[in-house]
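Worked Example 4.2. Consider the chain below.
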Amino acid sequence: MSAQFVEKKTGYYTAMDGTPIYYEVHGKGEPIVFIYGIACLMNHWHPQVEFFSKTHQVILFDIRGHHKSVPVKNLENMTFEHLAFDLKGLLNHLGHKSAHVVGHSFGVPYQLKTFEQFPEIFKSLTLINGFARNPLKKLFGLEFVEPLFQFIKAQHAKAPDLWNSLWRAMVDNPVAFQVAALSGGFNIKLTQFKDIEMYGRGVSRLELPLFFRLFEQLLNFDATNVLSSIDKPTLIIAGDRDFLTPPSYQKELVEQIHGSEYVLVPYGSHCCQLDFPEFMNLKLRDFLSRHH
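Applying the procedure from the previous section yields the following structure tokens:
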């Protein structure tokens, strides 16, 4: 039996400030948008693309400042407000008034802030290993994270070439890939190493000033006031071995989003869509089939 042919097209949408937003469209049908995390890449969704593009139109895009969505016309526009306009504009560009939206990690606050601005573009929300407020304070203690971040940012301003080289050397190497896995970012027994390696290479190629700007957005992020206003079908997924954004953050979402559904993935890391793709795909398919 021959494999099913899935149509794919790629292109660029020009955002409101002139930044080019690269996108890919796979398949036909009801649209689903997948949003990856900060400094991640489309590859994080490859099992979902293969599965859902047979029945849906799967839409992926590079977040502004990431990979092919460069150059950003104005660094000051690396904000959640502009990210929201990017998503709405992309859907308009593709001829959709609304879509199912699935976000992982940073893709969750991306959805929450977009919902605050444009609730009408959501058919449903799926929030995977995400959070409604800065997760780093609880994880490390903000008194450690923020001074370290400000120090690195200041040093980069003094010697950008040196710090760009250090960043690439630090992130794009096998030791860093192992650390990313062991810290709960991936389940090293389940996720293919090539996916972890590709992630590290993608992170290392992100321009540091753009990363700094988005990270500042994350440090100041709080959308808890948005949660109670969400009136669209919502699926919340947590990995029980996620040490970066542990399940307590997803439970906060469940408690405050009326009527939301909750799935805990046993042994799931921060990237449980790569750890257990079949399980995740079936749970998401079931949810979408009830809310199309």
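Residues 171 and 228 are 38 Å apart (CA to CA). The radius of gyration is 18 Å. Compare this with Example 4.1 before moving on.
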